[in-house]
């Protein structure tokens, strides 16, 4: 079509969109505000789910062929990530893809490398993989960035509470997070 059927205008830039292969009416958008938003194409006025836990802008996104999770291993209906793949020299990831059999995740990062990472379910019986599953150690830069992001979100929340407490009743209306990032929907 030469013109869009419906359009959602958001506060931040959307870097990538991936359609769920098993539920063709659902898609997930990767945004500059460190979150991913899942939408139902029939109801675009609010996000179905906000996926958090990223520490910088989300550059790319891809669903597994089963449609049950997407890269940085989020469940399609869960707000927080289940897994994170990283190495010592890995820098900012620009592109990610699942293999067709959902066994591998391929990522391209700022250090000009492509990485092929095996999904841990395939090798969960090995003692080394069991140890990794028990101990979730993040690299220091990711850990520090996550703490900084958490501090910023907490400060924003406290500021909103103070503004609400020192204003006239009903003058400040808070929107849910799922609606907050959407400016308007145009049909």
UniProtKB/TrEMBL annotation:
<comment type="similarity">
    <text>Belongs to the WD repeat DCAF13/WDSOF1 family.</text>
</comment>
<dbReference type="InterPro" id="IPR007287">
    <property type="entry name" value="Sof1"/>
</dbReference>
<dbReference type="Pfam" id="PF00400">
    <property type="entry name" value="WD40"/>
</dbReference>
<keyword id="KW-0677">Repeat</keyword>
<protein>
    <submittedName>
        <fullName>Cytochrome P450</fullName>
    </submittedName>
</protein>
<dbReference type="GO" id="GO:0000462">
    <property type="term" value="P:maturation of SSU-rRNA from tricistronic rRNA transcript (SSU-rRNA, 5.8S rRNA, LSU-rRNA)"/>
</dbReference>
<dbReference type="InterPro" id="IPR015943">
    <property type="entry name" value="WD40/YVTN_repeat-like_dom_sf"/>
</dbReference>
<dbReference type="GO" id="GO:0032040">
    <property type="term" value="C:small-subunit processome"/>
</dbReference>
<feature type="domain" description="Sof1-like protein">
    <location>
        <begin position="117"/>
        <end position="182"/>
    </location>
</feature>
<dbReference type="InterPro" id="IPR001680">
    <property type="entry name" value="WD40_rpt"/>
</dbReference>
<dbReference type="Pfam" id="PF04158">
    <property type="entry name" value="Sof1"/>
</dbReference>
<keyword id="KW-0539">Nucleus</keyword>
<keyword id="KW-0853">WD repeat</keyword>
<dbReference type="InterPro" id="IPR011047">
    <property type="entry name" value="Quinoprotein_ADH-like_sf"/>
</dbReference>
<dbReference type="InterPro" id="IPR051733">
    <property type="entry name" value="WD_repeat_DCAF13/WDSOF1"/>
</dbReference>
């Amino acid at each position: 079509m030469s013109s869009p059927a419906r359009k959602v205008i958001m506060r931040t830039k959307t870097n990538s969109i991936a359609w769920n292969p098993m539920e063709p009416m659902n898609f997930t958008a990767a945004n500059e505000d460190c979150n991913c938003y899942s939408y139902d194409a029939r109801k675009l006025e609010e996000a179905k789910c906000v996926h958090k836990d990223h520490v910088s802008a989300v550059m790319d996104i891809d669903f597994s062929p089963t449609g049950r999770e997407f890269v940085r291993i989020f469940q399609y209906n869960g707000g927080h990530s289940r897994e994170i793949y990283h190495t010592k020299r890995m820098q900012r990831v620009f592109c990610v893809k699942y293999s067709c059999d959902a066994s591998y995740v391929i990522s391209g990062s700022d250090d000009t490398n492509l990485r092929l990472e095996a999904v841990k379910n395939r090798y969960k019986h090995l003692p080394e993989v069991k140890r990794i599953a028990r101990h979730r150690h993040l690299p220091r830069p990711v850990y520090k960035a996550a703490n900084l992001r958490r501090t910023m979100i907490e400060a924003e929340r406290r500021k909103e509470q103070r503004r609400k407490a020192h204003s006239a009743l009903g003058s400040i209306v808070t929107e849910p997070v799922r609606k907050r990032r959407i400016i308007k929907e145009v049909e």
